[in-house]
What we know:
Radius of gyration: 23 Å
Largest sheet: 3 strands, antiparallel
Order of helices and strands: HEEHEHHHHHHHH
Strand content: under 5%
Distance between the termini: 57 Å
Helix content: 55-70%
Number of helices: 10
Number of strands: 3
Amino acid sequence: MAGEYANSSEYIQHHLTNLTYGRFANGEWGFAHGPEDLAEMGFWAIHVDTMFWSVFLGCVFLFIFTTTARKATAGVPGTLQNICEMAVEFVDDNITQVFGSRPNAIIGPLSLTILVWVFLMNLMDLVPVDIIPHAAALMGIPYMKVVATTDPNATMGMSISIFFLVLYYNIKMKGPVNFGAGFFTHPIPSIWAAPFNFMLEIVDLIAKPLSHGLRLFGNLYAGEMIFILIALLYSSGFVLGLLGGIMQWAWAIFHILIIGLQAFVFMILTIVYLTQAHEVDEH
């Protein structure tokens, strides 16, 4: 609750800090309890809340779709079966439109996993910002961020994994020699333009995973920040508290669009990148 903190800056900083486990300067391992501890742990610390919520929601996704598949009927489907079938058909339509009929056993399951998993992680942004951190504090847990996609470690981890998959298919489909030569012959097929081509292609290659992961992070982080700023109004008197409640409902309704859209964008970019990796005539 905002009133429990010394000022608004402390409240915002607390809600934007991950539960971090790492090694202190004295060699001991443990959880960070403040900015000083976080500074000691450095780069190799683990965001435990991001790991927990992402894995938990991944298990929720598997449970829902596995249970639905086992109980699927050819007769009148239930609500859950309808939702799962709509998701599968939506993914299949997008793959058909972008990827085409190329044989690939991984793109369907991968795209469905990305769409639903990212959507579930984004959906946690609609949980009131004080509920879970306050419950965690009662159990002695200093920090608890529940939206894994507001952590760049999570979004960049997913985008880099897809990036390595794209590299694999580029080398597999085009061959290592042709793939490497493409850096020097595209977009201008001239030996004199090879250095220029190489710079362009390297920038393009690096920009893909960066934009892929940071786009999702930036949009969800901004949405979470707005929820936190609105929550500050609750400790500012009855009138501002009432205004905050109205604003929170309005932003939550609008944010539903962002939640679904960002999951779709992350999925469709994955399909596009894999499609480009399979285009052997490009170079």
